[in-house]
């Protein structure tokens, strides 16, 4: 997975997605708004031209173009083994500062959905190549993303551990690629590189005492996925007081909250020594057939779950998490289970709250 998310092919695909957004969605939409003279009815005595397409084109559109150009530069840098995080976070935050009231709700929703898809895609690169902040790749993150990955790639490149190529946390590397901890089988693997000063390996993300206890009690196959077993662990005599505020709402148990609550308290960091994991080009092996079936089933279930999480304003929240609605500007927020979803003041269209994949 780390080799895939750090690959130049993955980066090129991100660049293509941004280019398609600009050329196939944004530019035609701006041209349409200009042809229909929408800005003539958007100028406001109080807000001036803030809500016009011209203002968006002058201020938000450059974020996309700069993002596109930076990705092209990143692609060129791979020839010199230069790796860095994308500018996706800055781009998306910048764009959100500018009004899209000049677009119809359907047009804005289409744009928002494509932009969020790009953000989720780019996040895999950022999580893999961020050598400054703590990595988000830990046991739970790998487990969560593995099923989608296995469903897409039934064959994966062969890998071998090179005990003759070693590294230490915080020191310069001699080889670009993935590294595995020498003395901790629970430590999350990392990707490091030699170019551009080198991406030094961070302290390992590994289980703390609570995490090891969860692994032993719940079991490897059910850890992070079996809500009932995770809830039973979190409500056991040993941990009930610790997790009470995390897995109950209005004194009602919420088993679906247990995996996230336990994950948030299960890891610690420590420096360690590493072995290089070599990718053998041109040689592949099958993912275990049972793993593949399970991955596809869970991937389909995840899609179905996201499709169900579309709730009309005024109804109770069906699943705790982050939602957004095209009917309200800057609407993304967290809702607890059962919380009433607001209705937009504008009555021209329904307020539909949509599940945000970036939880």
Helices and strands in order, then pairings?
Layout: H1 2-5, H2 8-35, H3 53-59, H4 61-77, H5 88-96, H6 105-129, H7 139-152, E1 155-168, E2 177-181, E3 190-192, E4 204-207, H8 209-218, H9 227-234, H10 240-247, E5 248-249, E6 252-253, H11 258-263, E7 267-270, E8 273-286, H12 289-308, E9 310-312, E10 321-324, E11 333-335, E12 352-355
Antiparallel strand pairs: 1-8, 2-3, 2-8, 4-7, 5-6, 9-12, 10-11, 10-12
Helix pairs in contact: 2-4, 2-6, 4-5, 7-12
Mean pLDDT: 88
Given the C-alpha coordinates, what overall shape results?
A: flat
The string of secondary-structure elements, in order, is HHHHHHHEEEEHHHEEHEEHEEEE
What fraction strand? 15-25%
Helix content: 40-55%
Q: Please give the alpha-carbon distance between the first and last residues.
A: 20 Å
How would you characterize the largest beta sheet? 4 strands, antiparallel
* Main sheet strand line-up: 1-8-2-3
Oligomer: single chain
- C-alpha Rg, in Å? 23 Å
- Unreliable stretches: none
Please count the helical segments: 12
How many strand segments? 12
Going by helix content, strand content and strand pairing, the class is alpha+beta
Number of domains: 4
